[in-house]
Amino acid sequence: MKIDTLAVWHQMLENRDPSALDNLLAEDAVLISPVVHTPQRGKAITGKYLIAAMHVLVNEHFRYVREAGDEQGAILEFETEVDGISVNGVDLIKWNEDGQIYEFKVMVRPLQAVNKVHQKMGEQLMAHNDVVLS
Amino acid sequence: MKIDTLAVWHQMLENRDPSALDNLLAEDAVLISPVVHTPQRGKAITGKYLIAAMHVLVNEHFRYVREAGDEQGAILEFETEVDGISVNGVDLIKWNEDGQIYEFKVMVRPLQAVNKVHQKMGEQLMAHNDVVLS
Would the pLDDT of A42 be above 70? Predict the structure, then answer.
C-alpha cells in the first residue's frame, strides 16, 4: 500500500516522534546535507541524520512556509530559529512508487545559519549516535 | 498580458541575455541571497544581483535538474561548477498575476559552495555595479 509520504512526514514532526521513519525510508535512502558534498548512503545513517535534524531544527519556531511538488516528490521550504539565529531552508524530498523516501536533501541560508546548523548537527550526532560529522 | 515566467527565464539563461529582466521583474521585486539574511529590495538591485549571479553560476556546467511548482510560482534546483567547486542550489521564485517576479530567493550547498558563491558574487558586484556585497 502506498504511503501518503507528506502526511506521514508532517505527522511525525508534529508528534516529535521519529518511529515512523522506519517505514518511511527506503532501504537505499540517501541523505544529502547542506554542509557536506558527499551523500550519506543507507537507511540507518539517513535516519540518524534526520532524527538529529529534528532535534536541532524542529523547535517552537519551526514552520513550513511553502510546498511545491513535482513527479519525483516535493520541495518544502521551512523557517526556524536556532540559538537566536534565523534559519531558512528547504527539504528536497524524492520518494519511490511505494511512497518511501529514497533521497532527502537539505539546503539552508543564510551563511550564518549554515554554520550554526553544521555546529549543532555535529554536536547532536556525536552525543547520541557516535557519528562524527564529516 | 500574462508573461510565461519560466519560459522567459529559461530563454534568458540560454541566451545569456539579461535584457528580458526589465519586463520580467516587478517594480517591488526582492532578492534574497544564500549568504545574507536581509533581503535586497527593489527592481534595480534585484536585477543587478541576478545579472551578477548569471555571470558567476551560468557557465558550461550549469543545468536545472528539478522543477517543482506551487500556486505562488516555482522552485528550480540547479547544479553547476565554479572554479572547480561543485555548486548545488535552488531558485525559489514567486510571481504575481502578471507573471512578473516579485521574490527571487537562492540557496546553495554544500558549505564550500556557499563560500565560493559569496566570494565570486562580491567580486562580480564590485567590478560591474559598484555594489559592495553586505
Answer: yes
